[in-house]
Amino acid sequence: MEYTLSELLIINAARLLKDGDTVFVGVGSPNLACNLAMRTHAPSLLMIYEAGVIGSRPSRLPLSIGDPTLVSGAAAVTSMYDIFAFYLQRGNVDVAFLGGAQIDKFGNINATVIGSDYAHPKVRMPGSGGSMEIAGWANRCYVMTPHQKRRFPEKCDFVTSAGFLGGGGQREATGARGGGTQCVVTDLGLMEPDANGELVLTALHTGASVEQARANTGWELKVAEHLHYTESPSEKELHILREELDPQGTYR
Amino acid sequence: MTKLTTLTEAVASYVKDGDTIYAAGFTHLIPFAAGHEIIRQGRKDLTLARATPDLIYEMMVAAGCAKKIIFSYIGNPGVGSLRIIRAELEAGHLEWEEYSHFSMICRLQAGASGLPFMPMNQTAATDLEHANPQYRRVKDPYTGREVVVVPPLLPDVAIVHVQRCDANGNAQIWGIIGEQKEAAFAAKHVILTTEEIVDESVIRSDPNRTVIPDFIVDAVCLVPYASHPSYTQGYYDRDNTFYLEWDKVTEDPARVKAWLDEWVYGVKDRAEYWIKLGADVHKRLEVKPRLAAPVNYGDY
């Protein structure tokens, strides 16, 4: 079956979720990945939204992080202080999805400024939102992004959210409780951190090559010893995405 | 004591040039009507603090009300960038102070609690800490490890939109409760706008739902639909179409000016604005009821 770039990312991200995971969700692709996982292999996934909503049962596709459909029928609603302190900082979040304009060799993420001068930004982006704490304190962080050289520089211009900093245990030395960037899902394959915290190519999607991945990465991309191929999106996964979750194709 | 007044009078009495304003509400209950009233009254040199400046502060920046913004996420939620604020920052025309969501909320929490600072665990990301000198570190006296701290945020005025309150200002909100309570307790003055004024007995029938008590409130303004294009849970939906259209309007400064002329300067108040939006928009934003099960407080 044919599928789009975003369907490929969403389906592969959904497969990273485990049944019973507590997920800190954003709208858009991560929301679709979580709902897809819930309808396939992870029926008891618990979704927590940054706006303070726990256990949402949205009856329509939420279009913003604070969509009222997330609230009606949810298990609980808390203040912003509570969601960040009791849920995230306390260690009650297993998984979170993050995004940004740059993701570097050690899984650090930049969503703040392009250029080296923070005070005089060449390009000003939205900034952290919740992602600084999410990256610090969630057990596993995942990123979904197209595989492009400009998105994968050797080093971020600004570290909004920490991956493994400069590698070699630098992150662990800060005492931040979370596990950092555990997987980057791209349209070519998957990158995961090695023991040093460096993102290496661990999987390719059908039709993608190591050469392609290397050519579109801004550092000397290493390839894992046991490189594998991901399973192509199944008919069932595509059906759920297209017919049940996003019938209008908003995120296709 | 009743604090009922009009939004025009409340803004005239409590919002001064140079003030620090916190217009509360995380995506939900954003007090747009008050933002428009501040624009109409021509306030200048304001410091605009909000976790997500959203369209309300973008409009106020576009109208020339702001000297500085304090924020943790400057995006158009679900759409993309806030073009005007972004351009002003890139051009160096607007001062800014930047946080993450949690540190922004911790600043309010410190302000609301009368504390000198709030501690947070380290996140391993230190670039923002280095860029903003308001972030400091202190040693935990119990374990010796370092925690990150931020100082209190003490706005001159907090503006909060609520579903219902009584004439004294005992205010109840439900749905996403963001940072309204913290902003109100941190601020020197509190202006409430409300969808409905209810009798005190309605408030007293469900005291757990009261988020803001009357004694910290200065003004109570009955302003239905005050949060459009944001929303009020159970009253009307978020106008996602508006958020998308704003992205187009802000591509061109002339269109922004025309929009402000038509929708802010060109109307007297929110009632006129709502009528002007028209029946199609009203219909699109209608929401069917979904009631909570009543709770039993017991008759003691």
User: Share of helix among residues of chain B?
Assistant: 25-40%
Largest interface: A-B, 57 and 55 residues
Structural class of chain B: alpha/beta
Mean pLDDT of chain B: 97
Low-confidence stretches of chain B: none
Radius of gyration of chain A: 18 Å
Give the termini distance of chain B in whole angstroms: 27 Å
Fold and architecture overview:
The complex is a heterodimer of chains A (252) and B (300). Chain A has 252 residues and is α/β, with parallel strands linked by helices. Chain A has a single domain (5-243), classed as Glutaconate Coenzyme A-transferase. Chain A is 24% helix and 21% strand. Chain A contains seven helices and 14 strands. Chain A has helices at 5-14, 29-39, 80-89, 131-137, 170-174, 210-215, 235-245; strands spanning 22-25, 46-49, 53-54, 76-77, 95-98, 102-103, 109-110, 113-114, 123-124, 140-144, 181-185, 189-193, 199-204, 223-229. In chain A, the strands form three sheets. Chain A has a ten-stranded mixed β-sheet, sandwiched between helices. Chain A has a two-stranded antiparallel ribbon with strand order 6-7. In chain A, strands 8-9 form a two-stranded antiparallel sheet. In chain A, α1 packs across α2 and α2 (29-39) crosses α7 (235-245). The radius of gyration of chain A is 18 Å and the shape is globular. Chain A starts with a helix and ends in a 7-residue tail after the last helix. In chain A, 55% of the residues are buried. With 300 residues, chain B is an alpha/beta fold. Chain B folds into two domains: 1-54 and 66-219, Glutaconate Coenzyme A-transferase (3-Layer(aba) Sandwich); 240-289, no CATH class. Chain B is 34% helix and 20% strand. Chain B contains twelve helices and 14 strands. Chain B has helices spanning 7-14, 32-40, 54-62, 83-91, 101-113, 127-131, 180-186, 200-204, 240-249, 253-265, 270-277, 279-284, and strands spanning 20-23, 46-49, 66-71, 75-76, 80-81, 95-98, 118-120, 136-139, 146-150, 157-165, 171-172, 189-197, 210-212, 219-222. In chain B, the strands form three sheets. In chain B, strands 1, 2, 3, 6, 10, 11, 12, 13 and 14 form a nine-stranded mixed β-sheet that branches. In chain B, α1 packs across α2. Chain B is globular and about 60 Å long. The mean pLDDT of chain B is 97. Chains A and B meet through α3, β9 and α4 of A and α4, α5 and α6 of B.
